[in-house]
């Protein structure tokens, strides 16, 4: 069908669409703190119903709600599923924001606020594409399903039981994942997979209380104990020292290598944005991109111990804590990496270091040769006027493996973000122009998916 009528509706209602995004951004939904979660779940359900979907809130034995929405086509049994999430990262550090993190301020052609792009902007762009169809032609070309997670930013620890329980409800022919966008030249970027992640906290505890640092010759220092343990995990050449850590790492295939060679990596712009003269180990070009996507990592996310205020305090801390994440590549498994970490610390005399496990997801990818990849790439090129850049894997993580491995769906991630959207950082924003273009892209994809040949 011609999309002219759909696009015209989107342009005519652009201001109203932006206000709905602002409305959602203004509702806090910080999963790490449980802040505003229930209210945001109810708001998402309400917005689905306003668009014309049937919607309901799904709850597991524990964890935050998942919102499910659907609208059935009168023309076909083909089904396209959208995965999104309504939870956001904590907004700290607050002092670095130009506007209130949950203010939904509109300035410089952008919507500012935590979640503006990750992931409320992408979610609203998809809802509005469905609305455009229902309001103009009274039907959608294919069945549409939404699964909107409330724990993605903490590793979706409670999503798997819901996916297994609702396997039939969530059934579809393909899935569009939650993120993506264009680069600085306007080229659309598509992602066919995600790294896995294992998030942990290491805790060292020594004395029962902090003591005067004059006692250092006699009293063990928890901060030093933790630093020594951390020193056993990675060397100065970025090699992870955990025994057998790299055993199951799967190298990229020939077709994935070809994808890497065709990716226009904007490394100069990225280094300039971050104030770096060079990347780690002097990596550049193809080798830098290959490392980013196919190299597993061990990252210290934060450290805390003793006195960290102004001036000095001669204290010997009783405890110390570090938060870490391991980004994993196919075919590494979070459970196996945790076991190897535990064994490694014990073997090097650090069995006293407590390991607290947080969220984890498995690495996963859809083959470059899958027909759904070709379909969405052609649609993106048609809408954006630029050939789509295909990433065989993303450096980020999420519960994509549940939809790929349990539901058996080809999954491609695409969205309306931009390299300067400040995802997970202060002053997160979404360009209004990119948001509206994203609505049109999703509308075009829904139309083109009607002609998709289901295997």
Summarize the structure.
This protein is of the alpha/beta class and 455 residues long. The chain contains 13 helices and 20 strands.
Overview features:
20 strands, alpha/beta, 22% strand
Briefly note the CATH topology name of the largest domain: Aminopeptidase
Q: What does the largest sheet look like?
A: 6 strands, mixed
Per DSSP E runs of 2 or more residues, the count of β-strands stands at: 20
Tell me the number of structural domains: 2
Strand order of the largest sheet: 1-2-6-3-7-19
Instruction: Provide the CATH architecture of the largest domain.
Output: 3-Layer(aba) Sandwich
CATH evolutionary superfamily of the largest domain: Zn peptidases
Question: What is the gyration radius calculated from CA atoms?
Answer: 23 Å
* Uncertain stretches of 5 or more adjacent residues: none
Q: What class, by secondary structure content?
A: alpha/beta
Basic shape: globular
CATH C-level label of the largest domain:
Alpha Beta
Query: What gap, in angstroms, lies between the N and C termini?
Result: 23 Å
Please estimate the helix content: 25-40%
| Mean pLDDT figure | 96
Query: What is the helix tally?
Result: 13
Strand content: 15-25%
